[in-house]
Amino acid sequence: MAQPRQRSRSRAWLATLVALALLGATAVVPVASVTAAEPTDMVLEWNANAVSVIGSAAAATPPGLGQPPPLAPIHLAMVQGAIYDAVNSITRTHQPYLGWIAAPTGASQAAAVATAAHHVLYGLVPGTDPTHPVKVRLDELYAVSLGKITDGQAESDGVAVGAAAAAAMLANRSTDGRTNNTRTFPIGTQPGEWRPVSPPGTNVFSWIGEVRPFSLDHQSQLRVPAPPALTSDEYTADFNEVKAIGGQAAGSRTEAQQLLATFSVQNPFPFANRAFREIATAKNLSTAQQARLFAMTSFSTADALISCWNNKHFYNSWRPQTAIRLAADDGNPATIADPAWTSQFPNPGYPDNPSGYNCFAAGMMSAGRAYFGTDFVSFTLKPPAPAVDRSYTRFTDYIRDAIDGRILTGFHFRHADVNGAWLGKKAAQWVAKHEFQPLP
After folding, report:
1. This model's pTM is above 0.90
2. CATH class of the structural domain 208-213+225-434
3. What is the DSSP letter of 94?
4. So what's the architecture of 9-172 in CATH?
């Protein structure tokens, strides 16, 4: 059953009271500071910290929570939402998300940002052991950040505001469906129905579609079109396209297509956020502007992914590797089976429609377009090797690459990629219309 969003502006005061009540349980005593300047890039610093802490493996150096998409962007949205409410409670320029927090005049925005982010991330670490390696890492990062802020009342006030914002977010999301949910995808037996693809043959993340959204009214609000009928011309065209260019033995891929495929198989979560940090720096955004930008991008991607996985479970449609191997049974004489066909890269363990990668990419880029009021913003995406950097002059250029790239990996039919891009765009448009608006 779809779980509706549990937040209303008429009860925003309740979130503030909860935050203040929990403040004593989550606050961390600030360490000594030595410098005199108020940092203006603390949102960018903690976006980078959060992305690394959330996404890095537990065994990495430094250690992280090891959360892959689609969960990682949901937790980042918690961090960025708390940062936004903390900073906005000091500047009082836009509508709050969970509610206003009492913020004395002159409270340090930088201290509020670092505290809000640290406390939310700290709350995401399992267990209560303060010596947990990720908690130790977070405390070290927090000490570095507070060390850049002048000691005094402004810093203390900022810490209090950030702690209250974090407590409110953690309380609000404590029963949002992220934990103790074991739902899996049904394993199909009929043509068109999803079944695990080996390797790796996993069945994961169905429960993401039941997580309460941050802004959307409910998880099924953005229902994408159903996959085309197996006997349709559209399905035939999509089938033959991915069969020709998405397999391990596809000899028709050009060098440029192979570069795009290798790029598109990388996790976009870290390098897309890095690109927006670089955009924010190039455009000299203030702390408040940075907080709003990353609240919009993180909420848009989180809600796009929640809706995406709700759609995946709803349609439960097979991936190209299954479809191509079993084409003799699909009732379509124009689709020729190849029992040995294998996608260029190992398949994810969940259904095809819509594409999660495209939900994320379009959600983030459409949020950027909504924030800046233009599609024409230059940026570079810098994935890890062996992929190479790709530079763009428009947000939508990356979306087009994402659609084509995921076909080239062999993961998706074109209709699944197009549907994912549509969903991400609609999620970003909803967030831009309903959240973070300027005060009258």
Report:
1. yes
2. mainly alpha
3. B
4. Up-down Bundle (1.20)
